[in-house]
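Q: Please design a sequence for this.
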């Protein structure tokens, strides 16, 4: 039986987008930063990508997500700080395991690194974090 890693980026962006809407947040969530993005941004942007991963068992994989939150400006990082903390809380919460169609079977708390500021040449405040999940593959 062939077991493929799940499309974690697509699932995670959809899940996070829905959770943020539930919090009343107007945020763009995607797997990449648009090439034509104009800064400062008109609305915050969260970018999710798979940074690393490997097979753990015949049907599970470890998955390290890199998450960037871009909001506000270099001079005013308050929105980026608050939003990044919300994103971290959502993606590292055990509820992610029980979400509809979730591939997540466990969270590696030691691999979840809270948001930190990242210098950016663009006029935007950027926060970066990592989230570590174990996920089940697709058959």
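A: Design:
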């Amino acid at each position: 039986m062939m077991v493929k890693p799940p499309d974690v980026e697509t699932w995670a962006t959809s899940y996070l987008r829905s959770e943020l809407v539930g919090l009343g947040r107007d945020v763009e969530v995607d797997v990449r930063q648009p090439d034509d993005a104009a800064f400062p941004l008109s609305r915050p942007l969260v970018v999710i990508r798979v940074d690393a991963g490997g097979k753990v068992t015949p049907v599970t994989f470890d998955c390290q997500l890199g998450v960037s939150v871009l909001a506000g400006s270099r001079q005013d990082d308050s929105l980026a700080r608050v939003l990044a903390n919300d994103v971290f809380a959502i993606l590292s919460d055990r509820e992610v395991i029980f979400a509809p169609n979730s591939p997540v079977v466990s969270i590696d708390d030691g691999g979840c690194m809270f948001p930190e500021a990242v210098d950016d040449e663009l006029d935007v405040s950027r926060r970066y974090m990592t989230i570590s999940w174990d996920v089940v593959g697709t058959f």
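Q: Thanks. Anything notable?
A: DSSP finds three helices and six strands in the chain. The first strand starts at residue 28 and ends at 30.
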